[in-house]
Amino acid sequence: METRGIEDMFDFRRFPKDAVVLLLLLIYFPVGICLMLIRIFIGIHVFLVSCALPESFVRRFIVRVMCSVLGMHVRQKNPRSRDKNTKLYICNHVTDFDHNIINLLTPCNTPQLEGSTGFVCWARGFFEIHSTSGQGAIGESLQRYCSTEGTAPLLLFPEEDTTNGRAGLLKFSSWPFSLTDSIQPVALRVTRPLIALSTPESSWLMELLWTFFAPCTVYHVSWLPPVSRQDGESAQEVANKVQELLAGELGLVSTKITKADKAEHIKRKRHSVPQTSTGVRPGSIGLGFMVQSLGTDDHRIAKMAQQVKDVLPHVPLNVIAKDLAKTNCVDTTITNLLENKEETPMEATGTSTFGPSKISSYSSGSAPTIKPAAKSFGKSPADRHLSLQERKEALYNFARRRYIEKHGLDQDDSH
């Protein structure tokens, strides 16, 4: 399997980067707001109609037409490839409403494996599994469901999380392929102009509002021929085979990236500090990028990082923020960076290049001598106070000298 970069598989920005498309979005924005408000009103009626009418072709047709008014258009390819005897549909996952779209074409049920339960679960078109004994018990329950006569086919998403549908497929989980011996692959491709289909950590309700805001969202559903498990073939082997089939149909690549990898990447991205580009003064844009892209707690870290940056301008912001995350104190971080100056990389400025330069080189003239941190805790309060006072005094002298150099003052004028 070819592994595609995880960044390419998800849209972390709702709005486009292209200036022309962004201008079109700004022009469309008032229209989109009005359209969203109208569609919210119509959407309530769609929900009531879908609840009132019994399951039938007429109900699916009416709801499908009304969903088109909501901007959710459905197109299907090769409907004759659908096997009415197959009790398990396997589909790639792009949006939070994929199961609703497939259900407009044919009756099927999708279990709610995690998230809200009760009325919200039912209203979203899921059916709830009453099992709290782990994945094994859920698998047994679904296996019994598939073997029961008269039940609608089961629709599962082995990726277990959404992608943007443009780069690759997440690694398929093997447990859905152990439920039955015959599987119906369903390839789903979703397109939408102006804005991204979804962003990580966005709720399904927020995604619904953006769907109403967008001009349209087109779902292309392709039915592939059923796949049967061969003798001696494991569930994981079948999962890999179906993943390759869907990837080939969609023109994507099969990856070994899992749902857990996506969650870990989002977590790292949330807590990482963006690097500043060479030759750009970090004080001018570095803090701005951090404040825009990070959460409330990180806003405070960003402001504290800028305070440290004013005293130590040549220390990279990511190094400062990393230490602040541990100390949560400006003074302590400054002290740590000064005491570990031999190990701290210097940030390049002007025409200099990035490299393993030492922070000690940013000072013109002799740098103040900073006593290293005590190897052991002072035996008496007087010893501990003396050590603290010495570091504070050295820190004060260093900051004072930096201020004098920055403003071009003489030593005598500073007194």
Automatic annotation (TrEMBL):
What biological-process terms (Gene Ontology) are attached? Answer: ERAD pathway
Q: Residues annotated as region Disordered? A: 344-388
According to the entry, every stretch annotated as the CUE domain falls at 300-342
Task: Mark out the compositionally biased spans (Low complexity).
Answer: 357-366
Which SUPFAM superfamilies does the entry mention?
Answer: Glycerol-3-phosphate (1)-acyltransferase (SSF69593)
| Annotated InterPro entries | AUP1_CUE, CUE
- Protein name per the record: Lipid droplet-regulating VLDL assembly factor AUP1
- Provide the topology term for how it sits in the membrane: Peripheral membrane protein
One Pfam match: CUE
According to the record, the segments passing through the membrane are 20-45
